[in-house]
Every structure is written in structure tokens, then in C-alpha cells.
Design brief:
alpha+beta; 46% helix; two-stranded antiparallel sheet; 9-stranded antiparallel sheet; Beta-lactamase; 14% strand
């Protein structure tokens, strides 16, 4: 029951965002994050490939464009042993995506005057499990929802503590992801509403799910959920037994939501349209409250219930989920009214969700970027070696053609850095995307011209026996590398 956003994944998103250029030629009813067309068939193939590569038994996914679901697929098996396929009724655990929905419900109670975000929770309900530490009396709902309570994720993660709940730092002073905090807040809400766990689930359904037509989305399983729930599988694709069919009477605020993509998308669209809460409440819920320490210069933050990060191509709110055998992820961009949600009965749903974000940046498969990276490396090496040779030549002979070629290389470098600067400073739009494409093709043409001069120079120098065969062969291999990777990339 935890979520961890991998630094490498976010770094890849940042770097790949800088390298965007071309768009998919295959267009149907799908759009990527910058508004260009995508092919449903290509996305189908992408998901099939990822399922096979990650050994994912089954998944269900929905994609939202302009505030509407435009893509919905169910793939693989809900039950591998009995060959029962995932269908549109299959229910998955939403794991930590529960936190976002629970935060939404909490804000409704704040609006109704039943809860104060900044009033210490112990004043609503003392907590015997942590009463030995007086610091717990400082913990508020705001701290819990933004993971600043000081609680661990789960007390059972710390065997040296003997299963005892503890506080790691002064509440409100730092960030630490915590399911324990959310569960304490759920206990408080149960007390405020004078109900039991099932009654709390019913209240959330009345306030959020049922008005949106989310008939089978709930925190506590009913007979329908049990009947239609997928089986969970581990990283090796082996069945995790025996919990998957067991009716559950426990409400776990940070982890127990059950749903499927079409229903969950209704809630995502509600968030995109900022409906169901007052404007001020939405502003408070989606405002960053916790800056998350990160090893790269990326501003990853946590709001009240959502991870948040901003790039030139969008301001994302998202959450992943990781229960044993059920992993998932959603992401949404409010201004573009774009988003997706993916559920799996495997341990790789968060990984798939992260890769899908990369995919939706421009609709390419990841290996396209690998070819682009190879193209840039080969081109850079070819031009670098050529530049060194030119500088050596100009020491002995100030030949105008060599100076011209050296100047062209300098111009190329300036053009390249101007391209990167413009790319990172201009917010993504359709017009901006066309501008970037033009700059990219201009860069490609400049590289092609320089490579032409490089090749001519090699031929001339070799004819005059001014360079040895080793340099000729080395430069030739670099040029071939540029040509091959460039052709494959395009």
C-alpha cells in the first residue's frame, strides 16, 4: 500500500520532453498532450507489447481527451488459471489512488463546516495508539492529507518498533508519505459522522460516487465487487492467494478503493472540470503543500491528496497505487482536460503508468527516442572530430574553405542551443509545436550540410595523403552511424 515515483522515470520525462519534434502520422480519435493526433491501433499495439514485456496478466485502461473518454480497452486475463478474460465489468483494487478520492471527500466535509483543516485531530478524536507522544496533538487534517504528519507509511514496515505507531519528526515540518495518517483521519471522519466503517463508505458513495454514476466504485467490497474482481499476481506472474475473493468489512482510507476505468474516469473528469467543490476548496486541495526531496532539479510536490509536477507541456496531478498484486496509476492535466487511468492485476501497473506518460508526451514508442539519442551522439562525435581536424589545419594554412567550415560548425552549435532555449521557454501549444518542428528540421538540414562538407574534406585530404586510413575509417563509421540512426529515427 505505497506509492513511489521513480526519479529515473521523471528524469526521462524531462529529457524526452526536450527532444520532442515530430508527430505521429496516424490519426484517429486520440490526441497526445500537445494536441497532435494519435492512432488507437498504435496505442493498442503499445499496450500489448508492454503487457508481454512486463508479464502483466490483465489490465483495463481509459484515456480522456477534452473532458471525454475517447479510448477504453480491457486486455488479458482476470483469472489466468481458468482463462477468464478481463471484461468491462472487471473490478480492480485502486490502492493508493484511494488517497485522492478520500481527500476530495474530506474537502466536502470542510465545506460543510464539519471539519477544520487546521484544527488538531485529537480534539475531534484522541488516538490511544500514539497518545504516549504529545507531538501527535499538533497533527491536523491538512498535515495528514499532505503527508506532513510525521507518521510512517505503515507501522508494520518497521519491525524494530514492534508494531508500535511512532512519530518521525515534528508534525508539519517535513514530508513523509504516510498511510497511517490517512487512516487516523478516516477514524476522525467516522466519529464526526457518527457512523461505522461501512457507513463511512456509504457516505462517500452518496457524496461522490453515486452523483457521478460510479455504481460499483467503493472502499468496502460488496457482493458485486467480490464476484467481478480480478485475481492478483506477483512479479513472476504467480497467483497471490487467498485474499482476492474475500469480502472486506474494513475501510482503509489510503488503500482500499475498488473500481474500473470507465467509472474512475467520471471522477477524473469531475476533477478536470473543477466540479463538486467550490472554487476556493479546489484551490486549497490542488495547491502544493509539500515539496518532495528529489535527486534531480525537478519540482515534484504533494497537494492535499495528489502528486503534482509541472513541465512545459502541462501541469500534472496524478497518483499511483501499489497493493499486493494490484498496481495502477492515473494522471490528469486540467487545462487541456486530458488524462488517463490504468488498472492492472500485477506488480507493474505503476511502471506501465509512468511509461504511458512518456508515450503520451508525443505518441512515440520509447525506442524512437533511443534512436534519436544515438543519432545525436554520432552527429556530435563526427562534428567534434571534424572540428579538431579543422583547427589543426588552420594552424598551418589559413585556407578560406576551412575557416568557412569551422564557422558553419559554430553557427550549427549556436542554432542548436537557440533551439533548446526556445523549446524550454515557450509553453507548449499547437503553434509552438509547429515552430519546434521547423527548428528541428532546420537543425537536421544544418547537420546534413556539415556532414556533406565533412565527407568532401575527408576525400580531399585522403587524396592528398594528408590523413591516414585510420582517421578516414573512423570518420566514415561515425558518418554511417549518423545516417543509419537518423533514417531509422525518421
Amino acid at each position: 500500500m505505497h506509492f513511489s515515483y521513480k526519479p529515473l522515470t521523471l528524469l526521462c520525462i524531462l529529457l524526452l520532453g526536450l527532444l520532442l519534434s515530430c508527430q505521429s502520422k496516424q490519426g484517429t480519435n486520440l490526441q497526445n498532450l500537445i494536441g497532435t493526433k494519435m492512432s488507437s491501433a498504435t496505442l493498442d499495439k503499445y499496450l500489448d507489447d508492454q503487457m508481454q514485456a512486463m508479464n502483466i496478466p490483465g489490465l483495463a485502461v481509459a484515456v480522456i481527451n477534452n473532458g471525454k473518454v475517447v479510448y477504453h480497452r480491457v486486455k488479458g486475463y482476470a483469472d489466468k488459471e481458468h482463462k477468464i478474460k478481463v471484461d468491462k465489468q472487471t473490478i480492480f483494487e485502486g490502492a493508493s489512488m484511494s488517497k485522492s478520492v478520500f481527500a476530495h471527500f474530506t474537502m466536502k466535509l470542510v465545506e460543510q463546516g464539519k471539519l477544520d483543516l487546521d484544527k488538531p485531530l485529537y480534539r475531534y478524536l484522541p488516538y490511544p495508539d500514539i497518545a504516549y507522544d504529545p507531538r501527535y496533538k499538533k497533527i491536523t487534517a491538512r498535515m495528514v492529507l499532505s503527508h506532513r504528519s510525521g507518521f510512517p507509511n505503515w507501522r508494520t514496515d518497521y519491525k524494530d518498533k514492534g508494531g508500535k505507531l511512532f512519530i518521525q519528526f515534528e508534525p508539519g515540518t517535513n514530508y513523509h508519505y504516510s498511510g497511517e495518517g490517512y487512516q487516523y483521519l478516516a477514524m476522525v471522519l467516522k466519529q464526526l459522522l457518527n457512523t461505522d466503517w461501512r457507513g463511512l463508505d456509504t457516505k462517500i458513495r452518496e457524496e461522490i460516487m453515486l452523483p457521478l454514476g460510479m455504481e460499483h466504485t467503493r472502499f468496502i467490497q460488496d457482493s458485486y465487487n467480490v464476484q467481478h474482481k480480478a485475481k492478483p499476481y506477483d512479479r513472476k506472474g504467480q497467483l497471490i492467494d487467498p485474499k482476492y475473493k474475500k469480502p472486506d468489512s474494513l475501510f482503509v482510507a489510503p488503500a482500499s478503493i475498488h473500481s474500473e476505468p470507465m467509472e474512475f474516469s467520471k471522477w477524473l473528469i469531475e476533477m478536470m472540470n473543477r466540479r463538486g467543490l467550490q472554487k476556493a476548496s479546489f484551490g486549497e486541495m490542488l495547491k502544493p503543500h509539500s515539496k518532495i526531496p528529489f535527486p534531480i532539479p525537478l519540482e515534484l510536490q504533494y497537494t492535499l491528496g495528489f502528486f503534482n509536477y509541472a513541465f512545459p507541456f502541462g501541469n500534472f496531478y496524478m497518483h499511483g497505487g501499489n497493493n499486493e498484486g494490484f498496481t495502477c496509476m492515473f494522471a490528469l492535466e486540467q487545462d487541456k482536460k486530458w488524462g488517463f487511468v490504468v488498472f492492472t492485476n500485477s506488480e507493474f501497473g505503476e511502471d506501465l503508468g509512468s511509461l504511458m506518460q512518456l508515450y503520451f508526451i508525443n505518441g512515440w514508442r520509447l525506442n524512437k527516442y533511443l534512436w534519436l539519442a544515438a543519432f545525436v551522439v554520432f552527429a556530435f562525435l563526427a562534428l567534434l572530430i571534424n572540428g579538431i581536424m579543422l583547427l589543426r589545419k588552420t594552424k598551418h594554412r589559413l585556407v578560406s574553405k576551412y575557416l568557412f567550415r569551422a564557422g558553419l560548425m559554430a553557427l550549427l552549435a549556436v542554432f542548436f542551443f537557440l533551439f533548446l532555449s526556445a523549446y524550454t521557454s515557450i509553453h507548449y501549444s499547437q503553434a509552438g509545436h509547429l515552430l519546434f518542428q521547423g527548428m528541428y528540421y532546420g537543425l537536421a538540414i544544418a547537420i546534413a550540410i556539415q556532414l556533406y562538407f565533412t565527407t568532401r574534406q575527408l576525400i580531399d585530404l585522403r587524396k592528398n595523403q594528408e590523413i591516414g586510413w585510420f582517421k578516414v575509417i573512423f570518420q566514415t563509421l561515425l558518418i554511417l552511424g549518423v545516417l543509419v540512426t537518423g533514417v531509422v529515427f525518421l
